[in-house]
Amino acid sequence: MKLPIGFYAQPGTSKRNKTGTWRTQKPVYLHKTCTGCKFCVIHCPDGCVSGDKKIYDVDLDYCKGCGICAQICPVDDIEMVSEVR
Amino acid sequence: MKKTVIVEGSKAVSEAVKLCRPKVIAAYPITPQTHIVENLSQIVADGELDAEFVHVESEHSAASVVLGASATGVRTYTSSSSQGLLLLLEVLYNLAGMRLPVVIGCVNRAVSSPLNIWNDHQDAITARDAGIIQLWAEDAQEALDMHIQAYKIAENKEVLFPVIVNLDGYIISHTFEAVEIPTQEEVDSFLPPYQPEVYLTPKNPLSFGAFADWNYYQEVRQIMQETIEKSKEVILEITKDFAQHFGRDNGSLVEKYKTDDAETVVIAMGSICGIIKELVDELRNQGKKVGLLRIRVYRPFPKEEIYQALKNVKNIAVFERCLSVGSGGIVANEVKSVFYGKEKQPRISNFIGGLGGRDLPKDLFRGIVERAEKEVIENEFVAVRTELIKD
User: What are phi and psi of B358, to 5 degrees?
Assistant: First the structure.
């Protein structure tokens, strides 16, 4: 496949690059004390937290394990778990 | 009707840009480029050119504006000097990688520190590796001509690279010269409207400047190198085409001034070549076989043209108004590399001078020619005020 001039790409193709492989720890959403404040959704720098009605989860294909959601959660309903083997 | 007028070099350049009908101009004023963008701003405000003039807060923004505008498929222009060009340089690499045919006027000036607003070639030479075509004018007429040619070169489907047109600060930009300004009809018949094959539009969304990891990046760079090398042919064709349209032949990638039977040839760029030509004439009258090779196109570097032009000369003296601190002459190194491993090996001396606008009288070059005839000289600074260096 010959490269296009200027290496332009189709839109949305950055999704093909699954950045979740960079991670060394992952957030675990406990779904126990969640108040539905959506802080985890708003603060995720990768935009990979989604959900509704006090059930939120992370897309591990793209989550880089930064831990911001676990830090920001006002009711400690998210735990960071090491994935180092 | 075409007219010859006495104008400031900057005015000639802004008239050339106007005649090329850019749709977006963005610039931040910096000495000695100011008059070009001042004039263009006036031209747009007076309704003489249907363009958007974007007043920005820096050269980085100016370049970013023309990058975005060019990506949407319109002709664009920006201009800068010195620190401004260096601030713009980060975007210049992006323009080159995205293969956007932006034309940039660089009014050459020294780079700080110490602060100096006068002419040398450090700014544009520092931008040499970005992936741009660099044209170097000798006078106001050539600066005007090169701006018109630059759009045609940049927008050619076999090229698609940004082009920098260089003109010496003050010496060309602020001096009044007789300049033939072509008519709009003449320029229109030479330079058709810009019609890109790929551009940003809501109907067909694309990502420009996309992410490329080690699986792709190197090939993108390799294609740039191979394409810009091949662009030499296009530049030559366009120069010929220009000569047919406007009756002015600016020559090849290099200008050969009395080099054919020369024993010693000076290599230089920019406005100083006018003085060197006078010296060549004088020395020729005294029976000395001296010539000048003026580099008009510095990127892509005209290796083959230099070799063919100078393979039979005895001595080459490269004179340059820039410096790689920690190495020495920049253009000289490239000229030396032209002859490496080749059958013919002229002796190559190199001289550095005229930095920060220091005056370069004709006799200085007489000395350079004499020195290069006697021995091989490496990285010699000329017209030195030794009292400022020694106790």
Answer: -60, 135
